[in-house]
Amino acid sequence: MATPRTMRAVQYDKYGGGADGLKHVEVPVPSPKEGEVLLKMEAASINPIDWKIQKGMLRLFRMPSKFPFTPVSDLAGEVVELGSGVSNFKPGEKVISICFPHGGGLAEYAVAPASLTVARPAEVSAVEGACLPTAAGTALQLLKAVGVSFDGGPPPSGSSGPKNLLVTAASGGVGHYAVQLAKLAGVQHVTATCGARNAGLVAGLGADEVLDYRTPEGAALRGPSGRRYGAVAHCATGVPWSVLRAALDDGGGTVADVTPGIGAAVTSFLQKVTLSKKRLVPLMLAPKTEEMEWLVDVARQGKLRTVVDSRYPLSRAQEAWAKSMDGHATGKIVVEIGGAV
Ligand SMILES: NC(=O)c1ccc[n+]([C@@H]2O[C@H](COP(=O)([O-])OP(=O)(O)OC[C@H]3O[C@@H](n4cnc5c(N)ncnc54)[C@H](OP(=O)(O)O)[C@@H]3O)[C@@H](O)[C@H]2O)c1
User: Fold this and answer.
1) Of the residues 235, 321, 324, which should be mutated to test ligand 1's pocket, given the most ligand atoms within 8 Å of the CB?
2) Which residue segments constitute the domains of the chain, with CATH numbers given?
3) 48 in contact with ligand 1, CB cutoff 6 A
4) Phi, psi of 61 (to 5 degrees)
5) What residue stretches are annotated with the Enoyl reductase (ER) domain (predicted)?
6) Closest ligand 1 atom to 218 CA
7) By alpha-carbon position, which residue is closest to atom 8 of ligand 1?
8) Which of 106, 52, 51 has the alpha carbon at shortest distance from 74?
9) Is the peptide bond before 101 cis (omega within 30 degrees of 0)?
């Protein structure tokens, strides 16, 4: 079927406003430029960064680059058109892609960089595929940042990195992948924090010990076994460095933090110059095609499960947005495009 001239999209036209700031509009279908592909969208997954950009938290970095803005950067769809210079895809191919910070995912069609687009095999659904780029990509880079080794695929037993790992916010989009990937890499003992209601789920993902973050022990990151950690994949917010430092082994260790504030950056710098054994490492996802392909492949093999918190049609994108802003998703929030209106 020929690509139409216009499409349904969801946009906001200023900073702030939350879910109420999202408007349903009819706009021209974008054209793929050099190095881009045009996708007929199947699904898009929301990440906290999407509404943080709307809040103006990345205003200093000129994000979004202009208003009105169509948010959401994690995409699954079908290639319908190729921009100049793109030869590694063909129309009709199912793919997943990440187009951060340009967004465009809450729409019937979106352009994506061919360089960060990978094939989606039939075993990985569009919903699952749309969840992987940011959340699983970040989980993988977080684990690598604390020394977990994925070289040559998961080792049969043990890994060269930390033996005792803590994953905070293990029920969230990033954390639920981090627990699974850590076990896949052979990390001996994974402790995970989450709310009590998700303890069973997180244990089912492979966590060896689960702490309820709302209890005093959980808030102190202290499990019943009394273990301290060689590394922390830190996906939660609001945990002071003093608590994280006390949770690390006396011999030292690394906390990789995916939501570092200015304080974390200063702490990290000071630790570096003082050659501290206990280190806080800020992490920003730098998407890599080969990592996306690897993640899709482990998902295809059934070794990486996506927990979907909730799915919404494009017509109810505001509800998906509000759910993400609420901060209590279990797994991922997905907008299915072309689904029920
Ligand atoms: N630096 C990067 O490149 C990058 C990339 C991706 C994400 N991030 C950031 O990483 C953070 C996590 O992202 P996400 O997608 O995983 O978020 P998310 O899915 O919205 O996380 C929600 C989950 O976190 C749990 N949670 C909240 N506070 C907690 C705490 N103190 N201890 C334990 N669990 C807690 C919640 O449990 P309850 O419902 O029980 O409260 C809920 O299940 C966000 O701040 C995001 O912006 C950064």
Assistant:
1) 235
2) 6-120+307-336 (3.90.180.10), 135-282 (3.40.50.720)
3) yes
4) -95, 20
5) 17-335
6) 32
7) 258
8) 106
9) yes
